[in-house]
Write a structure and sequence with these properties.
mainly beta, 2% helix, four-stranded antiparallel β-sheet
Length: 345
């Protein structure tokens, strides 16, 4: 955005002395001027209004630093500076900050979903940007990873793959960037960005870990529940791992929502494998019980259900490293990105 400043300065003298003014906002936005005062626009002593324009001021910058220099012989002048001046109130003309209405999440500039490298020293540098502001980045690496997949649409519902039952708004959502990771100890991690089908500027950043996935017989013997489809015995099952932190962070209309998972509920698990009528040949189901508030409305008994296909899967051969970035702009829009790096060592 552009910021225009009007700075009234009084007690000037029109005998050829100079005044130098600088203005800076954030990093990289700077303007300056030098004036040798020989007259006043109004013809009256002793005030002038100086104008400076700052270009490309970041949306999260909310202050401007102004410096007035009247020292002798400074700034390349051969004459003396003004002996003393008074600056009055500063008038600013600021184009509305894009932060106030920005609903677009950051994007990756040069991200390849999968890389095969000969050596870890070749690990690529990935950069991110936003059309409105600077971004903050939280970066994590996970190794070893057994399998990494993207979450896609299932075969039963072609517009939604995750539902927030009990919500005061549209319950249908889908994974905009959603991922499932499996680790060698059979545990799993579900993470990514979920958006509302009716309002894709609103949704959730989700990060949930699951205990070791077990076969159907072991799951039922431990008291687990499941759906009653013919392929239920072919899938793996795992409960939410409450020993690890989870994240349900709302954005858009869900900003400020306070949701927590209910630990003593049977509906805190996922399954993995084939489900011809729902996920397809390879996918995952999700059942989470939650409670809390959404936009001030209380949800005492809600469930989050999911049915997603698993696509773009990468399975370990030698070394498989998962790189994860959570990238947030000044308006609070967050996106989640991953890169799967295979090392041929």
């Amino acid at each position: 955005r552009t910021v225009k400043l009007e700075l009234p300065v009084t007690e000037l003298t029109n005998d050829g002395r100079y005044i130098h003014i600088e203005a800076a906002a954030g990093t990289g936005s700077f303007a300056e001027l030098t004036d040798v005062v020989t007259s006043f626009p109004s013809g009256d002593c002793c005030i002038k209004i100086y104008e400076l324009t700052l270009e490309n001021v970041a949306g999260d910058v909310n202050e401007v630093a102004i410096r007035i220099d009247t020292r002798n012989g400074e700034n390349g002048q051969t004459c003396n500076g003004q002996s003393w001046v008074l600056a009055s109130s500063v008038k600013t003309e600021v184009h509305c900050s894009c932060v106030d209405f920005d609903t677009t999440p950051p994007t990756a500039d040069n991200l390849a979903d999968r890389r095969i490298l000969e050596d870890i020293s070749q690990m690529p540098k990935v950069t991110f940007s936003d059309e409105c502001s600077a971004v903050t980045i939280v970066y994590n690496e996970y190794e070893p990873v057994e399998e990494s997949c993207w979450l896609g649409i299932g075969v039963e519902n072609t517009t939604s793959n995750i539902w927030f039952d009990g919500f005061p708004f549209d319950q249908n959502h889908h994974w905009a960037n959603g991922y499932l990771e499996r680790f060698p100890d059979a545990t799993a991690k579900l993470h990514g960005r979920v958006v509302n089908n009716s309002d894709p500027t609103s949704g959730w950043i989700i990060d949930v870990y699951f205990e070791s996935l077990v076969d159907y017989t072991t799951w039922i013997a431990s008291g687990g529940i499941t759906t009653n489809d013919p392929q239920r015995t072919e899938r793996l099952y795992g409960a939410v791992d409450f020993s690890k932190p989870y994240l349900l962070q709302g954005f858009g209309d869900y900003t400020g929502a306070d949701l927590s998972l209910v630990e003593n509920s049977d509906h805190q698990y996922m399954d993995l494998g084939p489900h011809a009528d729902s996920y397809g040949d390879y996918g995952m189901g999700l059942w989470l019980a939650y409670q809390g508030t959404v936009n001030g409305q209380t949800v005492s008994e809600g469930t989050i259900e999911g049915a997603a296909s698993l696509t773009k899967c990468v399975r370990i051969r030698g070394r498989l490293i998962l790189r994860e970035w959570k990238v947030t702009d000044a308006a609070g829009n967050t996106n989640v990105f991953i890169q799967r790096v295979e090392l041929e060592e």
